[in-house]
Structures are given as C-alpha cells and as structure tokens.
Amino acid sequence: MMIQEDAHVYERRRVLYGVIAAVFVLFLGRLYQLQMIYKDEYGRKSEENSIRTIPKEPVRGNMYDRSGKLVVDNRPAFTLTIMPFEFDKKNIPLLSSILEIDPAFLRDRLKRGEAFSRFQPVKILRDLSFKTLSAIEENRERLPGVDYDIESKRFYTTKAYASHILGYAKEISESQLKASNGDYVQGDIIGSSGLEAVYERTLRGKKGAEFSTVNVRGQVVGSFNKGKSDIPSVAGQDLKLTMDFGVQMLAESLMTGQRGSLVAVDPQTGGILAMVSKPDYDLNVFSGVVPADTWRDLNNNPDRPLYNRATLSRYPPGSTFKPLLALAALENGIVPPTWRIYCNGAFRFGNKVFHDLHVHGSVNMVEAIQHSCNVYFYQVMLKVGLDNWSSMGARFGFGRLTGIDIFEENPGLLPTTQFMNKRYGPRGWTRGFLPSLGIGQGEVGVTPLQMALYCAALANKGHYHQPHTVQAVIDKVNGREDTVAYTTRDIQIKPEHWDLVREGMRRAVMEAGGTGAAAKVKGIEVAGKTGTAQNPHGKDHAWFIGFAPFDNPRIAIAVLVENAGFGGAVAAPVAGMCMEQYFYGRLVRFDGQRPKAGGAIAQSQPAARTTGRN
Amino acid sequence: MLAFLKERFDHRLGLIALGLVVTGIISVYSAVYDAKASDIFHKQLLWVSAGTVVVLFLWAMPFRFMQFISFPAYFASLAMLLAVLLLGRTVSGSTSWFNLGAFRLQPSEFAKVTTTLALAQYLARSDVSLQKFGHLAAAAGIVAAPMLLIMMQPDLGTAVIFIGMLFPVLYWGGASRFTLLSIVAPMVAAVAALFGVTPFLIAVIALGALLFITRDHNIVAAVVFSTTVLVGISVQFIYDGLKPYQQKRIATFLDPNADPLGAGYNILQSKVAIGSGGLFGKGYLHGTQTQLSFIPEQWTDFIFCVPGEEFGFLGAATVLALSLGLLTRGVTIASLVRSRHSSYVAIGISGIFATHMFINIGMALGLMPVIGVPLPFLSYGGSSLLASMSMVGVLMNLYAHRKEY
User: Fold this and answer.
1) Average per-residue pLDDT in chain B?
2) For position B294, what pLDDT does the model report?
3) Which of A105, A220, A253, A472 is a Cys-bridge partner for A240, taking CB atoms 3.0 to 4.6 Å apart?
C-alpha cells in the first residue's frame, strides 16, 4: 500500500504542520518577549550582570608544640595578580622592572594563566615588599589589570628552624599540578616537605569563592546576589605536635656549626621532643617567593642542608651498641652477668689484634658497659654469634623503618648471616668480622632516630613506640582535638637483665670512671652510653645515647656529631644540656647563662676531658 | 540534463540546508572568536566540507540503497555503541566518544539515522501492522536497543531524541491514540513528579482519564496506567541515582537561581544574551555576552545565543524560519514519496530534527530544562554536523526517487 492511499495521511500531515507551527509561534512569541518587550532590562543586565568568581584561599592550619605554644602560623602577604584580558602586554617591561623580575618569567606566567581563563586573575608574584607595593600603587593608572590579593604566608614564631620536621609549603610546581587531579590550580600553595606535605589535606582547608558582578568591560560593579551565594573558605585544621620547642631551640643552637643530628623522644609515648639535623635551613626562605639562587645554594651545598640526617643518614653506632650485645648474651643464657675477663688493652683473634683504648683490668658486664671495655665485648660477641646478635638488633627496630610520621626515612642496615652470605659469599666471611660488629663497627648502619628509640626502649624497659611528631589534629571550628593513634610493640626481656644493662648505663654517667659523665644533670639521675664510630672518610663520629630520670624516664636522647671525635666529650654534654632544658626549662650548669651558639661543645670539653673515654 | 537535475534535486531543501549551514559557520566563528579557539572553527569548516560530500553521495545513491543498508547499518551502529561504552573516551562524565587522531567521533549521532532507517524498514513490511501488540513491541525494541546503550553512557539528551523520532513515526503509521498516549504518559508523569506531589497527582488523574477514554482493552489500559504511576513514583529514586551534574541540571530547571554558576547561570546568561540583542542585534562579533565568553561552551549547546545577540530578533527569527522550513519540508517529503519506507524515514528524520530544535532553542530561550543536545547545523561538533547533513542527504535521495516504490 502506498502511503498516499492511507486516507488519513493528509490529515496527519496537517496535524504535524500544526504542531510544528505551534511550537515556532511559541518560540517567536518568546523571542519577541525577550528581545522587544524586555530588551532594555536585558540590555542593562548584559551591561552589568555577569558573574565572576574570585577564589578565596583558606587559611592554612597552625602548629602548636606539646605545651600548646603556637609555633607555626600565618601572616598576611601581598600577592600581585594580573587580569589577563584587561592587561596590556606592552606594559610587561614596565611591570617587570617594578617587580625586579625577568620579563620572560612574567610573560610565561601570564600565558599559562591565560590558557586557563582570560577572566580569572593570574598570580604573578607572592610576598611583595612594601617598596614594590608602593611602586605599583604609583603606577596603578598606567597598569590596568594589575592588582593584588591579600594572602597568607607561613610565619614561624620561634627561633627554632625544625626545618626537616615542619617542612615547607610552596607554590605548586608543574609536576605536582599534573599529579593533583585538578584539586589545585597554578599559583596554589602546597605542602612539599615534612609535616606540611604529610598533613597537606588536613592543613590546607577548603577553598571558597566570592561571586561578583562585572560589567562588559570586566570591571567589578558589585557582589552577586548580595553575597548570599558566596562560598566561604574553610580554614585548615591545626596540628598539635609532640615537640618541645625549648629543647629544639637549644639543641639547634648547641649543634650550630657542626654536621650531625640530635633526636629526643618521650619514652612514655614515642613522641619526638626534638629533632635536629645539621646543617639545616631557615624555613622563612620558603614562606614567600623562593629566589632561584637560594634554592640552588640549598640544593648544591656539599653539606646537604635539605637532607634529614636524623632519619636518612646511616652511621655505625659504635659503643652505644654494647648494651644491645649485653642483652643478647644475657637473654640467650650465653654469658652469666657475673662473667669476668681481664682486659689488657688488646684482644688477639686469629692473626688479628683488636685494640682497646685503655687497660681496664678485671671487668664484669656492668663494669664493661660503664667503662666501655672493648675487649670484654669482643669476647662476648664471639660467644653470642651473629644470629643472636642480629635478632636482638631487630627486636630493637634496627634494620627496618621506624614508621615515623614524617615518612622520609632509611631502614639502616643490620647484618644477618643471610646478608653476609649475600655480600661476601658463604665462604667469603669468617667469624673474624664479629669482634668489630660487637662494638658497633663494620657493616652495621643506624639512623639517629633509631638510636633514640633504642635508647627509649632501654629507658622504659621494652616498650617500642612508633615515633611521631603529631599528637593530635585540632578542629579550628569546634576546638576538638582528635588524637592520632600510634602503635606500640613490646620487647620481652627478663627484668633482671634490663636492670643490669641499665645499671651499667647509669654508672657510665653517674659514677666516677664512667665515660658519659658530661651528660650529668644537677639533681637528676641520668643513664647513658657513649660511642665513637670509626669513619673511613675522616675523623671519628661522636655518639651519645642517654635517658633520664633513671627510675621514671621522661626523655631519651641520641646525639651524633660527625667527625667530632670522642662521644663522651662532644655528644654527651649536648644531651645533658638538652635534658636540663627539658626538666628545668633552662640551663643550670652555666648558672642559667645560655652558652653561645655553637660554643657549647667547646666550652664543655675541658670538664669532660678528664673522664673522656670511648 | 538540467531538467533531469531539476526533477531530482529538491532545491527548497537544498536552500534551507545551505542557509542553516552558513548560519552555523557564522555563529561558530563568532562564538570562538578569540585567538585560542580558531582551531575549533577550522575543524568545523572541515566537517562542513566532509558533510557536503556526504550529502551529494547519499543523494546520488540508487533508490533501493536506503532499504538495502537499513539493517546492516543499524547493527553496525549497535556494535559501535557497545564498543564506545567499552573503549570510548570520557568527556565531562559521559563516555560517548571515539578518538580518531585530532577528531572525535560520537557513534550515538549516527545511531539516530540508522535506527530511523531500520525502524522504517520494519514498519514498511506489508505484514506488519501497528494495531498488533507484538509488532508494536518489536518496533519499540528496535528503538529501545540503541537508546538504552546511549543512556548507559550516560547521555540522556541524545536518548530523548529517539523518543522524538519514534513518536511521529508511529503516529504517521496510524498507531492508535491509546498507543501514542502510552508512550507519552510515563514521561509526562515523570516530569510532573519532579515538580512536586500536586502536579504529579493532577497529571496522573488527567492521564488516567485520557487512557480510560482511548482504551481498547481494560487490562492493557490498567497496565499502562500502573506503569505511569510507578514511573512517576520512582522518579525520586532515579533522581538519586543520577550523576551530580544531571541532578544539578534538573534542580536548576526547577529553580534557576539555585546554582548561579552552573546550569542556572547558563540559562540566565543565555536569556540576557538573547534579550539584549533587541531588534537588530549588537552587530556581528560585537555581542558582549558572546565575545566575553560569559556563556560557557557557547559554541555547542548555547549557539542559538549568537544570532540572538549579534543579529537580534531578525537574526533569531531567521534561524527559526529556516528550522521551520526544514521541518515542514521533511513532512512534505514524507507525504510526497510513494514508498512506505521512504515515507517513514522522512517522518523519522523530521522528528529527530524537530526534537533537537525544540529542546535546544527552548533551552536557550529559558522555556526548557538544560538538556545537552546540539542545535542541528549550528552547534559546533563534527559528529552532529555530519549526522545532520547525512539526514539531509537521505531526504534528498528520497525526494529524487519519490515516484518509485
């Protein structure tokens, strides 16, 4: 059947024509209404009623130390912006001379911002100086499209750097921008190291937006919808740290001029009280614009200030490892605590002679720790063997990551039979390696952080806490503190064995003839162990680990000073002074007078030298 | 020779299509008239050239060609829709694109045409009657298959177009009022439900009455009615399952001030652009709304604002007149041709064009919700333009062979 034979086809065609015509009449009527009747109203609206979004940056979260003292907050800073469609590119030379920047840099920033939107201000330069600001003001008329935003920059309230813990937040880089999945735009600030990076999501807060009405020339004529549609920014949350900035500041000043590291932890929680890695750098450098040459200097400095020695650097632990060996011997029932040897200052094993610094005479285990007798521990190590020794080391967290919340860390190296077989071949190494390992030399490598935690576990008799710098996250709005949870692991060791080793460490500081006497603190019983780690590349590294008070320890410290010689002379006084600061809130050994920065080590040396042994 | 051409070439359709294509080129050029977007304009020119070749090619094809390729092309489209779901590229939340070097292809645009051909092929069979439930169901199935695949992308706008094609074809084929009502009723109930309980109840009562009047079988009428009610009730659940941007669009249609920077902003700015055009417009390339990019993605969904703002009432009315001309010409061709297949195809194509134009222009004028469908010939987009031009090519072919069957 042809369609035309259907009797209704013309009727249906009429209906369809009708429907189509009806819709178009409706459209035409609407057009007439919009364009003829309401023309003036819409014409006016098109002159003025266009909406522009101005992003509102959230205020970054603050940081407080353990006592609630504000240590990191924000201060206002002026950021120069350019509205691309208003800006005349002929003004680039003028503007870049005012800002004292490279015109190519300005052109590049502008181009990248423009690619995003010509109607969004592009951030050009942060943290304008007052001088620059007034120069811009003077030339305002000649520089259409140039404006500034009030933003915030990081401000550090104390003199302490704490560079490697706090870290810095800086303007987002190209590669970070690509990885951010659209959460950031060019010119945003992003935490890039330390806690600023780890807690970026917590600290950053949420961006808001302000909507304003702009006219055809893009000039703001008022706020849109009386500001009712604006989205306020949400400030970032605050961090409450475990750190004691008094100790941090003192430790930094004591270590000034050295290369080395100090880590102090609270043995009851694993909270970091202080963490110093020297040389360090001033975080204020990163709070505004980072000049390229500053950045280059930091990166190229042979002493690597950006590198966190406390968690990344491996050092042989030296004699500070002797308590660990003693525990391995006692726990495995290999050597009784009463076992004595006669130290004549050297120990022959095979055709090799291992030396001691002194002739200690007849010593038992407590005395061997107290006097740091090498000969004693050479022999203990040979009895204990590599496997027992390294399994005790593993129980104290050596050779593995500690899980600290600033993430950046090195597991160190704890030699095992497996490792030695792999490195030297099953027949490539002999028991001749053992005596050196027994006194913390040779292949073994530890970080100062691991040493502080080892010391804390000796202090609290076997509670190995996950180290951390953040106690709690504080909600700015309701003030609620959310405590961050960390893990704890127990090291099972017989109480009498703890007592014995700890007694050796107590005597090393407190009794005549102890190697760590320089760590003494007035009125408080301190225990500790010195170490001097041989270094194939130069002068020995000085170690000290110590804790106090002896009966109920509240601080455990590990100090390492590179190429500084004897641990007892160099590292122990630093630890002692930090303990004083922690317990008394000031230094008591110099009658309350603060030693000059960097001078503390030198000052304390004469006193220490009399007892200064390995 | 000239007489032969005159006999076979539908010069009215040709002129209307030419007018629309030229308007499109002018509008897209203005919408992207700043340095960064000239690439878009050049691509659009390329697509116009390719489209012209397609029109001429389809026009020159032998009469049986359309019937011959109907089902193969239909199944090829289904395969492409499946493939795009699995392999396609996601743009603003929906997976509907194939990448072909610098160009992107949208299979759903072509599925509209091939589905029309297949539906027409099926309905043109002498043993198929629209009075039979089984045949109706089969016809609905032909349309539902690509539609569902497109809804899964999800691209609701393009899916709606298929309804806009099916409905006039069924009407043209003589489907009963009850059948036609059954298709519309659930959709009306759904839209009414979005506005609230009272509009929903009023719609349900009205639809129930209409279904009752037009019914042949009580049971069928009851089933359709319950389906309608059920669809209306489940709208809330469907709404919750929608993507946030789709929810936003619906919410904005109900209250354009709810989202001043999203879809509501678009409607507002679109109305401002058109309204401020006045009688003669602000002049080509002088539309402040257009040139200052206040309407996001104006070169696609909101292209109608360009003639509206820059050429005013006269420009917008010209576009309306050309669109009206295209639609009536399609219906006229449907009644001119002798072959049932040709007739159905012509109606289906007119239905597709009509749905696009009604939704898109209605949206720009603030009469319809923001549903992302392009305005044929005017919106930037290669797939859309090629599809529109190939539909013109098909209409040309049908006209050329109008006396055969």
Assistant:
1) 84
2) 59
3) A472
